[in-house]
Design brief:
- By secondary structure, the protein is α+β, with helices and mostly antiparallel strands.
- The protein has 8 helices and 5 strands; from the N terminus they run αβααβααβααββα.
- The strands form 2 sheets. A 3-stranded antiparallel sheet has the order 3-4-5, with no helix packed on it. It has a two-stranded parallel ribbon with strand order 1-2.
- A hairpin with a 4-residue loop joins β4 and β5.
- It is globular and about 40 Å long.
- The model has no long low-confidence stretch (mean pLDDT about 90).
Length: about 160
């Protein structure tokens, strides 16, 4: 979609996600929504507002929203994005830049000691924020296991 139609296209997609969630609820079906590069949808004020509404309401309709992004700084650039994160009960954080660590740390009240788990972190290391607690983790998958190539985000190692 060209630049002039991008916002309309995003609004159509978000509206379709919301309508499917409502329809699925009436059929007794849960809706799992995965949005990769979530920050893209938060760069437009209208899309960010609608997305924040969806994130706040979707669980009431049997939905489970999941936002994925590599650059937290872009995601934290507006009030709506922060509203989405503040409404999350589960946030998994991997290696983050210094600026991103400070922003997310201040917002979620993460100590400097805990933030060290996402400072120059090796693959498979990070923090899990649950709303009630912050848990550091190390989850290394041996490279000789078949699952490694399936879950690796390194394009030279994926199946």
């Amino acid at each position: 979609i060209g630049t002039g139609m991008r916002e309309m296209g995003m609004q159509v997609c978000l509206n379709d996600i919301w309508n499917r969630t409502i329809a699925n609820k009436s059929r007794g079906v849960r809706t799992w929504v995965y949005i990769d590069e979530l920050y893209v949808l938060t760069q437009s004020e209208n899309c960010a507002r609608f997305l924040m509404y969806i994130f706040k309401q979707i669980r009431k309709y049997g939905g489970a929203p999941t936002g994925i992004t590599q650059n937290v700084e872009d995601l934290l650039s507006n009030r709506e994005s922060r509203g989405i994160l503040n409404n999350c009960d589960f946030i998994l954080m991997l290696n983050q830049s210094s600026e991103d660590r400070q922003e997310i740390g201040a917002m979620l009240h993460i100590s400097e000691a805990q933030l060290n788990y996402i400072k120059n972190a090796e693959s498979g290391r990070g923090l899990i924020y649950t709303g009630r607690g912050i848990v550091p983790f190390i989850n290394r998958v041996p490279q000789d296991l078949g699952i490694y190539k399936t879950i690796s985000s390194n394009p030279n190692e994926t199946a």
